[in-house]
């Protein structure tokens, strides 16, 4: 990848919306669509690894290996640690992370079975995670989790803010993926993002949004059908020149974004601005197993020790 050709340091929000189908994200998230139509975001689809289940794919997203390789093959493997993952790699390069996520992520990172009364804000050792908020009820509201995450971001200013809301997965299991409730979960997430993303951008954070797996109308997922496998990948870098700790200086940063464009061409057409580094035009992960490496590359930690 060549995502590392412009100024560092960077800051990234990686938002993993649990159980959000690609077509649902496309059809019901109007704020994200507005950003795409304005040439400020790019969206594509990824085909998730198999089995299309949460715990195995949480592990895949943060360590870059398919379940058959990392060995987390089912949701019941409570307390089993992943031997390596992107948080470690960031830590090895002196970069910090903050995490607001379901407790299974705590288990993958700590190797301990989650205890709500001990681990609510526990920092898994050796991970470089400087702030954490773990939830364990599937109906913990996305609005609360995103506020938790924003609080961590403001407190710690991490290089990576990892956020994992459960709303779409919960609605899908309760009502099926063709239900009004499932669509509403995506609409709600979109409305929350419309309030948070401008703040993230103002602070110099870029957003990569994806999902672990899709959802079937039969209220489950796990298999290879497209509805269970196709997930969104949406990239929304902060506009160049917008206030922030990074991105307002360095080669190309002031001239490649929406505000700095002197002509009226659509900035999604990267050939029109090929002489400038355009964060919107960088290569995106092509597979779910590329995400962890892409994050490391983007944050400047790709060459660190494993
Ligand atoms: Zn699920």
Question: Notable features of this structure?
Answer:
single chain, alpha/beta, Alkaline Phosphatase, subunit A, binds zinc ion
Brief overview:
With 306 residues, the protein is of the alpha/beta class. It has helices at residues 22-28, 30-37, 54-63, 67-70, 86-92, 103-110, 116-119, 142-156, 167-175, 180-202, 226-229, 291-298; strands at 11-16, 42-47, 97-102, 129-135, 160-163, 205-210, 230-236. Strands 2-7-6-1-5-3-4 form a seven-stranded mixed β-sheet, with helices on both faces.
Task: Give an overview in words.
The chain has 306 residues and is α/β, with parallel strands linked by helices. The protein has a single domain (11-262, 285-298), classed as Alkaline Phosphatase, subunit A (3-Layer(aba) Sandwich). 35% of the residues lie in helices and 14% in strands. The chain contains twelve helices and seven strands. It has helices spanning 22-28, 30-37, 54-63, 67-70, 86-92, 103-110, 116-119, 142-156, 167-175, 180-202, 226-229, 291-298; strands at 11-16, 42-47, 97-102, 129-135, 160-163, 205-210, 230-236. It has a seven-stranded mixed sheet, sandwiched between helices. Helix 9 (167-175) runs antiparallel to helix 10. The protein is globular.
